[in-house]
Request: fold
Amino acid sequence: MLMIENVNDVLKNDGVIAYVTDTVWGLGCLPSSEIAVKRIYEIKHRDGKKPLILMSDEFYNLFDYLKLPIEKEAQKLIKKYFPGALTLVLEKSENTPDYITSSLPTVGVRIPDNNTFAKICRSVEGHVLATTSANLSGEPPALSYNEAVKYLGEKVDLIVPDYGCEAKGKASTVAGFKDGKTIIFRQGEIEI
Reply:
């Protein structure tokens, strides 16, 4: 079984973990840990202007971080594509720290379609991870446990095995909304 207790203990102590999702491997921490978020930027050599996103196993776990109600166009896409390879950029609430969103008024949210990722989320306090892809900036993301170990082994506190729930290898589509219309920021696995 998953090292569930380890995951929660590591994250509560400002830890950074690597884990499988349905698309590529992720690197994440608790959204409440500014220390861990800063570590993710250092580990990846990530530009501070590039925000992290929030992921969970269930969309309602993200409500605290979002300005409600969510616009109708977004609700349609959530019903159709969550869980799945779609990241939606939505207006954030004051509960979403600026250190996650690079002070932007929006936050990307996603519900991966991966059982191992879902188990990790269910085991952590709040059931939400602040996350990005598991790689150094400019390099391809890890697509397997072995690649995650190779790219990030010594830099992270825990790399959770995928337990047979492998990443498919194609990035998520990133979509946002303006004046009630959907805008595609990155074309990934899902075609809207």
In short: The first strand starts at residue 17 and ends at 19.
